[in-house]
Every structure is written in C-alpha cells, then in structure tokens.
C-alpha cells in the first residue's frame, strides 16, 4: 500500500502551473530520488506533502490521510534552508526535539553528532553552513517517522562528508519508512536509491526502479537523466 500518493495533483502559482496532473504512488521501505531541472516542481511536491502548501486541484495523501496535523506526526521534513532556532546550542536542540517529537531518538542523534565531531555546546547560528546542514539532517533522521522528506540534503555538504550522510540516511530510516529525497547531485545519491522519479515541467516523466532503469537503458541514473533533460 502506498504511503505517499498523488492523484491528479496540480499546483498553480498565479498563472504558472508548478505541478500538472501528477499521479504517483510510493510504497514504504524505499529510498526514492526526486530529480528534475530547476522549476520542475520538486520542492513544490515536497511542500505539499508537508502541508506547507495546499493543492490547487487533485489530492495528495500521506498514509491515506490528507496532509495536516495528523500527518505531521508521521512525517520528518528537511527543507532546503536553515530552519532550526539559531540561538540554541546543539545540546538544546536535542532537548527541544525530544520535547516536541515523541518519536525522536536523542541517543541516536548524539551518536551521529559524535561521529561527525560536532560540539554539542556550539550555538547553531555560529556553525559553518555545512555543519548546520549536517545537524539539521541528523535531527531529521533521528525521528522514527513513516515518511522522510529531504529537500537537497547534501547540497551544501563537503564531498568528504557526503558518504557518511548517505550512510546515515540508509541506516536510520525505518524499514517501514519512505525516504523521498530531492536532489541535483544524482551521481552522489544514486548508489542509495531504490527508485527514481523524474519531474519535467510539473509532470512525472518517469517513475522506475533504479536497477531496472540501469538494466533497461544501459546507463546510470545520472547518465539517463542527462539524456532526458539535455538542453
């Protein structure tokens, strides 16, 4: 049964159609790459799933429910910009998440902070951009959620830390959870993807198992993406 489903989903911004009749069903236990050029609708789709936007037409369902207060209890969201209170230190952020989310695993978060040698006494806004992104990803992945929505999770992270972050994603999502990962860095994330969704001008150009795609085309996911979206 799909844990995230779009049915004839449309989203307009004024006269601009960001999503155009999207039909999509994503099952639990999968890491799905959401890829497409700038303006293809990736962030819009993720924001609709998080209930930061509402559909113009059609429907999006999370665990069979329309996005709202109930779905926020089962969705862990990582936006593409800083979202944590800048004045808090990292240790206080752990306490904040523990108080706010019953499914937050502070022990797991602490282990990941230690592995990346992030000082828990540092104030969040005084960390480097890359370290802030690591902290935000750790907080997001330390929830035992049903759906993880990750918008460009490794865009600002140095290449040396990307492998660790991807291992963090693989090892910390529930086997019954869905990870929907929006990215431009397809080569970096391709090894962890079970499925890939190509968005083009607001509609689903392709939704396929990543291994099946490579076998069918004889190309990597990144290579096929470049072929499909060649300028």
How large is the radius of gyration?
17 Å
CATH superfamily: P-loop containing nucleotide triphosphate hydrolases
CATH C-level class is: Alpha Beta
Shape: globular
Main sheet?
6 strands, mixed
Provide the CATH topology.
Rossmann fold
Helical residue percent? 25-40%
H/E series: EEEHEHEHHHEHEHEEHH
CATH architecture: 3-Layer(aba) Sandwich
Number of helices: 9
Q: Uncertain segments of ≥5 residues (pLDDT<50)?
A: none
User: In whole angstroms, how far apart are the ends?
Assistant: 37 Å
Extended strand count: 9
The mean pLDDT is 90
Question: Describe it for me?
Answer:
The protein has 231 residues and is an alpha/beta fold. The chain has a single domain, classed as P-loop containing nucleotide triphosphate hydrolases (Rossmann fold, 3-Layer(aba) Sandwich), CATH 3.40.50.300. The chain contains 9 helices and 9 strands. The strands form 2 sheets. A 6-stranded mixed β-sheet has the order 5-6-7-3-8-9, sandwiched between helices. It has a 3-stranded antiparallel β-sheet with strand order 2-1-4, with helices on one face. A hairpin with a 2-residue loop joins β1 and β2. It is globular, with a radius of gyration of 17 Å.
